[in-house]
Specification:
The complex is a heterodimer of chains A (248) and B (273). Chain A has 248 residues and is of the alpha/beta class. Chain A contains seven helices and nine strands; from the N terminus they run βββαββαααβαβαββα. The longest helix of chain B has 38 residues. Chain B has two domains: 43 residues; 217 residues, MetI-like fold (Orthogonal Bundle), CATH 1.10.3720.10. Chain B is built from eleven helices and no strands. The chains are: A alpha/beta (248), B mainly alpha (273). The site of adenosine-5'-triphosphate (ATP) has 14 residues of chain A, from strand 1, strand 2 and helix 1.
């Protein structure tokens, strides 16, 4: 079986004001179809850069990124950025509708899907609000809904739950699992939380400080569905300890 | 090289806001102030008794207004000027917006053209207006050209700044969602730049009125500028006043319309639920 995504000796060097800056160095990994991969690593190590490379926003300076789908075909990708970027002149509803509008999907059907999404992220009351009226966490939920609604082949999440409180964070994590299971998309998620990574993913990758190289990789063989209680499972704690040691 | 949007309120944004508030809450104050000025004017004329060709009384100006309105001449001349102003504003800003878009996209093109564009601003339009009338005739088309020329630069500058100001992270968003060039223009660039574009249009509207009058001064046989010339020649100062007030009214209406459009396009900035 060909892999869904193959990242091969990927390197990214920025030509910044202070000369050359290597953000990603010699990163190779594969992602299976419908796999859930979490990326851990210290701040500034190059995790966001990796996601931007995969999303095609920047071109790598070394190595390659290849998708195993039909030749000439591009998988659809949704990226939830680290900084929420909603269009300030569109309401919450219109922001969530944006990907469907770009795809030219029938308006009624799009509205139906958007309503379901707004319900999912718990923002029914704010459907007609402007982004300037939202709190940081609410805006982030809108961005998540906007990414989910597109039903992409690959979902790239850059610390999507960063500014959410612990409870909402857990709930959004559970919703993410639901969506992942029902839509069968592949996911790469950057997070700083070890337990979040273990609770959600099939595999965890740990990055070194800049330039990012993979220092540890771990398959998470915890049975699904995983619940909040899984956090106290001895097996889970064993994984957590191993990861913690890998990060240093 | 072009960094600031063209706006009359560069440093006085705060004062402008206060004025706006005053105007909103104290609309009657404006009426009072106008009445006050009229009273002073009227009393001044009564006591000072200046010759009518120096300063006519408000009553004389009003009578002139009514009589020119009745014989249709005021509307005829005003509509000529209005047409020139609108057509000049339309063509000038259309051209400026298109060119501005490409200048915003390509800094090479901007570097190539901006010396000429900036230098062209050093030429006083009043000075070349006679030339334009020689070349394009004393009819309406030369006036439209003058209006378009005077409108062009501020709209161009605002267009460049508007499109340059499109947030980079939203561009990334559109690219990541594989938006086409047309979708990027329609759903990102235009909405993001719209408030500044309307700002340029607002300034262009008042400038266009000036352009039309300048053109009509230099050579024409119709329009409010022509009417002012006639009034001056016949020592009919009341007629001059009527034409001036009509021009002010025209400029203010256009300015207000553009401001309304600007406000509507930035509802999301001032939203309070
Ligand atoms: N466009 C750019 N130009 C120059 N340098 C950049 C650019 N983007 C990122 N970098 C640099 O690359 C390095 C990695 O940045 P990146 O955003 O990928 O880190 P990160 O792992 O996502 O960090 P965090 O966890 O804090 O979000 C940083 O040193 C950053 O300064
Ligand atoms: Mg990051």
């Amino acid at each position: 079986m060909t892999q869904f995504l193959e990242v091969d000796h990927l390197g990214m060097t920025f030509n910044g004001a202070e000369g050359e800056l290597m953000a990603v160095q010699d990163v190779s990994f594969t992602l299976a179809e419908q796999e859930f991969l979490c990326v851990l690593g210290p701040s500034g190590s190059g995790k966001s850069t990796l996601l931007r490379l995969i999303a095609g926003l920047i071109k790598p300076t070394a190595g390659s990124i290849q998708f195993g789908c039909l030749p000439g075909e591009q998988p659809s990708i949704s990226l939830v950025f680290q900084q929420t970027n909603l269009m300030p002149w569109r309401t919450v509803m219109q922001n969530i509708l944006l990907p469907l509008e770009l795809q030219g999907i029938d308006r009624d059907q799009a509205l139906e899907r958007a309503n379901a999404m707004i319900h999912l992220v718990g923002l029914e009351e704010f459907a007609q609000a402007w982004p300037s009226e939202l709190s940081g966490g609410m805006a982030q939920r809108v961005a998540i809904a906007r990414a989910f609604i597109a039903e992409p082949d690959l979902l790239l999440l850059d610390e999507p739950f960063g500014s959410l409180d612990a409870l909402t964070r857990e709930r959004m994590g559970a919703e993410l699992l639901n969506i992942w299971q029902s839509q069968r998309t592949a996911v790469i998620m950057v997070t700083h939380s070890i337990s979040e990574a273990l609770l959600l993913s099939d595999r965890v990758m740990v990055f070194s400080p800049r330039p990012a190289t993979i220092v540890a990789e771990m398959k998470v063989d915890l049975p699904r569905p995983r619940q909040e209680e899984t956090r106290y499972d001895p097996e889970f704690l064993k994984y957590a300890k191993l990861l913690r040691q890998a990060i240093k | 090289m072009i960094k600031q949007p063209v706006s009359e309120h560069k440093s006085s944004g705060k004062r402008h806001k206060t004025l706006e508030k005053l105007a909103r809450y104290n609309g009657w104050l404006v009426v009072v102030s106008i009445l006050l000025v009229l009273a002073v004017w009227s009393l001044g004329v009564q006591w000072g008794k200046p010759p009518a060709f120096l300063l006519p009384s408000p009553q004389a100006v009003w009578d002139k207004f009514v009589s020119t309105l009745a014989d249709g001449s005021l509307l005829r001349h005003a509509s000529v000027t209005f047409f020139e102003v609108l057509a000049g504003l339309f063509f000038g800003s259309l051209l400026a917006t298109c060119l501005g878009y490409f200048l915003a996209k390509s800094s090479t093109l901007e570097k190539l053209l901006s010396p000429y564009l900036v230098a062209s601003q050093a030429i006083p339009l009043v000075a070349i207006a006679p030339l334009l009338i020689i070349w394009f005739g004393p009819g309406i088309s030369s006036k439209i050209l003058i209006c378009a020329l005077i409108v062009f630069f501020p709209v161009l500058v605002n267009t460049i700044i508007g499109f340059r100001g499109v947030p980079e992270n939203l561009r990334d968003l559109m690219v990541s969602m594989r938006a086409t060039r047309w979708q990027k223009l329609r759903l990102l660039e235009i909405p993001a730049a719209l408030p500044i574009l309307f700002g340029g249009l607002r300034i262009g509207a008042t400038l266009s009125v000036i352009g039309a009058v300048v053109g009509e001064f230099v050579g024409s046989d119709k329009g409010l500028g022509f009417l002012i010339n006639v009034g001056r020649g016949q020592f009919d100062t009341a007629l001059v006043f009527v034409a001036i007030f009509t021009l002010i009214f025209m400029a203010l209406s256009l300015y207000g319309l553009a401001m309304l459009a600007e406000k509507r396009s930035t509802r999301w900035k001032t939203a309070h639920h």
